Amino acid sequence: MESHAGGPVTVAAIQAEIDDARRRSTPVRIAGRAHWMDAGRPVAAERTITTASYSGVVDYVPGDLTITVRSGTTLGEIASITGEEGQWFPLAPYGDDAGTIGATIATGSSGPLAQRFGGIRDLVLGLEFVSGEGKIVRGGGRVVKNVAGFDLTRLMTGSWGTLGIITEATLRLYASEARPATLVVGLPHSGTHFAPRIAALLAAPIVPYAIQLIDGATAMRLKLQARTSLLIEVGGNAAAVKSQRDALAALGAEEIGPEVWTTLRLLDGEGSSVLRISTLVTRLAELWQTLQHSIEEVSGALMNASPGLGMVRCIIPASADAGTVARIAAAGGDCSVVFEKMSPQMWEALSPSVVADRVSRGIKHAFDPANILNPGILGE
Which of 125, 233, 295, 310 has CA atoms 20 to 30 A from the CA of 110? Predict the structure, then answer.
C-alpha cells in the first residue's frame, strides 16, 4: 500500500486502509491535519487515517468559478492558488488556514463571512468520499448549475467522518474585488438602546461581507477599546467600498485594520469549551443580553455573535467546570444549542448523543455498517 508518515497518498490506499480496518473490526479515527482532535466526543479508535498528504488541485477552470481539490489541501493553499487568478474561496472558518478542506467540510465549519456568502454547505458543489465499506461515492458536480446529488453532498458536510472519508471536493469561488474595509462601532453594554442601535446599523445602506458582535473581553483580545462593539467588513469595487465606509462613518463607525478577523478566528483556547446558541434574527439582541449576564461572571470567557444569522458563540475557558458550561447553555432557554468543543468528561454529561434517532442510525448503517469510522464522535 502506498503511504508515508503523512498518511495515504492515493484513493486506493485509503480504500485499502478502510478494507483492512473492516476485516479486523478495528475502529479508526479520521483526521486531516489533526488540528481539531479535541472537538467532538471522544473516539475509541486503535488507528488513525489522515488525509493530510492527499492534497493538490484536481481541476481548476477560473472561468467557471469552481475548483476541485483533494481533501488534504489546506485553506491557505486554496487561497494562494485562487488568488493568482483574482478569485477567492470566501469561508474563513474559526481556526487557521493550515486546516484542510476535507476536515473543514467534515466538521461543517464556517465563520463570519457566512453573513454574505453562506456557510460551508453553500460553498461545496460536489464531493468524492470513501465509505465505511471501502466504496468510492460521488455526489454533486463540478459546475455551479449541476445540482445532481446535491443532497448527498450536504449530508456529508458536518458528518464528522462518520459516513466516509472525504477525498475530493469541488468548491464555489468568487471574484476578488477591491480590498475590503473593516470598521468598528461601540454599542451600549445593555439597556433599551442596545437593540435599536444594532437595528440602525443593520439598516444602513451597506451589503456587508461580515458583521460580528463582540463583547468587551473579546474587544480587548482584539486590541480594541474594551466595550461591546460591532465589527463590520464591507467589500465590492472601490466605489462601493467608499460609499459603505462613508455610510457607516456617519453612524459613528471607525475604520480599523483587517487583522482583527484573523485574531477573532483564533480565539478558541486549548481545552476551552465552545457553545453555539442560535435563535431567530429578531431575538438575537435579547439572547445576547441574556447570555452576557450569564457569562460575565466567568473569568476569561468570551462571546461573539452573527446578528444576521441569529447565532451567538460562547468560548468558555478550560478552568470552568461542567456546571458552569451547563448553566450558560441553559441560559438560552428554548434556543438551539450546539456544542463545538468540550472536554471528554463533559460530553457524556451535557450532550450524550445527537444521532440516537432512527433516521440517523439508518444513514450510519447504510454508509458504515461495521461502525468503524469515528465511532462515538457524534454520540452512540
Answer: 295
